[in-house]
Amino acid sequence: AQYEQWHANKVPLLRVGDVFQLRSLLMTEGRTSPPQPISESELISTMDKNGIGTDATIATHITTIQAREYAVRNAQNQFEPTKL
Questions:
Q1: Rg of the chain's alpha carbons, rounded to an integer?
Q2: How far apart (Å, rounded) are the C-alpha atoms in residues 43 and 58?
Q3: Residue 4: predicted pLDDT
Q4: Helices 40-49 and 58-67 meet at what angle, rounded to 10?
Q5: Count of alpha carbons within 13 Å of 77, Cβ hemisphere only?
Q6: What integer pLDDT is reported at residue 61 of this predicted model?
Q7: pLDDT at residue 42 greater than cutoff 60
Q8: Alpha-carbon distance values, 26 to 21, 23, 56 (Å)
């Protein structure tokens, strides 16, 4: 009965032997959308902010992104993600 009135969004930490009976589960459908195109300087700034690469490797990472077709440059010279 410990979790009988539990309404949190995450399952609590359980120990071996604990019993958790799920009474209901609501699954919702969601959609994602691709990010907006970004310039090379915006890409570099985002990579730096997220700790991706160093000054010496940024150009290599950008070349790899294009070679693996994760993103392409559009007519405005911005990076657009490709279809998965």
A1: 22
A2: 10
A3: 62
A4: 110
A5: 3
A6: 95
A7: yes
A8: 15, 10, 48
CB 76, CB 65: distance < 8 Å: no
Q: What contacts 24+ positions apart, CB below 8 Å, involve 59-65?
A: none
Cβ distance 40 to 62 under 8 Å? yes
Q: What is the DSSP letter of 5?
A: T
Query: Which amino acid would we find at residue 52?
Result: I
**Residue 34 corresponds to which tokens in the numbers above?**
């691709």
CA 7/CA 9 separation, integer angstroms: 7
Question: Quick check: 50 pLDDT over 70?
Answer: yes
pLDDT of residue 32: 85
Token reading at 52: 């991706």
Mean local confidence (pLDDT), 20-24: 79
